[in-house]
Amino acid sequence: MGRTEEHTEGAGPFITRLTWRLAEGGTAVWESRAARKRGTLAVRPAGASTSGALRADPVTLDRLRGLNNATAASFTLGGLLFALGAALAQFGIGGPLASAAVYFAGGLLFSVGGYAALLQAINAPRRKGTADALVTPRWNRWSYEPGRIDWLSTFILFVGTLVFGVDLLDSFLQGLTTQQENRLVWAPDMIGCLMFLISGHLAVVEVCHGRPRILARDLGWWIVAVNQLGSALFMVSALAAFVRPETGSPVNVDIANWGTLAGAVCFTVGGVLQSFERP
Question: Are the beta carbons of 28 and 132 closer than 8 angstroms?
């Protein structure tokens, strides 16, 4: 089918939604999140009051469904483990090594979920330039596409989980000085939190197609909003965990632990919600 005109939406150099009028009447709408998560493209025939969905091929849909399930399960379980680790630390159960081990297991799951989300962006069905159809690229385990907001958001998220891994691994070290504690544990934690916030902002821009706003009827909006809240709580926790050189103790242990626990619950809820956003 041919097209006669286009209307693009997004932010800066990023296009998140593209609407075009078909030559035979009606419109077609491509959205980056819908294509990546559900493998769909919306088409409204001339005279119709509602839009239908054209889907990618069955093999692609199965792959997207599998990656979505892996992402949802990893962040759900990883969030639960982070919440458990924070609870152990807050109530002094099992000592610091016990909470560190639980945190590290949760961090590994976050990294698995981050990579699965990146794979979903890499292998998302693409809009065919001259028709109301989706085409699937050859399966890849890696790509470099910083011009796509979905790729950039998931890439930064994945790198953030790896940086968190450095922080969580260093937390096993004993007998660190205050300077070493801040350099090896606190600094990677702050960088990871910042990357989570940047990734979450890009995800919000993607789902809102530009300026952040409330989209209460959009499941994708709820997922990114809850995850962004979790990222903000992680950042609050990280700020409170800074070890003051003059005292050798964190700024506020309670805020650090409860902030981590609340943020982890947000990621757990986001993971559960994401299990429903699938082909």
Answer: yes
Q: Which of 149, 148, 147, 80 is nearest to 113 (CA)?
A: 80
Instruction: Label residue 131 by pLDDT band (50, 70, 90).
Output: low
Q: Let me know: does 208 contact 184? Beta carbons within 8 Å.
A: no
- What residue type is assigned to position 70 of the chain? A
Map the chain to HEC letters: CCEEEEEEEEECCEEEEEEEEECCCCEEEEEHHHHHHCCEEEEECCCCCCCEEEECCHHHHHHHHHHHHHHHHHHHHHHHHHHHHHHHHHHCCCHHHHHHHHHHHHHHHHHHHHHHHHHHHHCCCEECCCCCCEECCCCCCCCCCCCCHHHHHHHHHHHHHHHHHHHHHHCCCCCCCHHHHHHHHHHHHHHHHHHHHHHHHHHHHHHHCCCCCCCCCCHHHHHHHHHHHHHHHHHHHHHHCCEECCCCEECCHHHHHHHHHHHHHHHHHHHHHHCCCCC
**Pairing mode, if any, of strands 243-244 and 249-250?**
antiparallel
Which structure tokens are listed for 276? 């429903």
Cα-based distances in Å from 224 to 139, 201, 218, 253: 26, 9, 10, 28
Q: Tell which residue, 182, 178, 156, has the closest CA to residue 167.
A: 182
Q: How far is CA 132 from CA 25, 53, 144, 255, in A?
A: 12, 10, 26, 51
* The residue type at 74: S
HSE on the CB side for 224, CA within 13 Å?
Answer: 27
Give the number of other CB atoms < 10 A from CB of residue 7. 11
Write out pLDDT tens, residues 148-190: 999 999 999 999 999 999 999 999 998 899 999 999 999 999 9
Amino acid at site 147: G
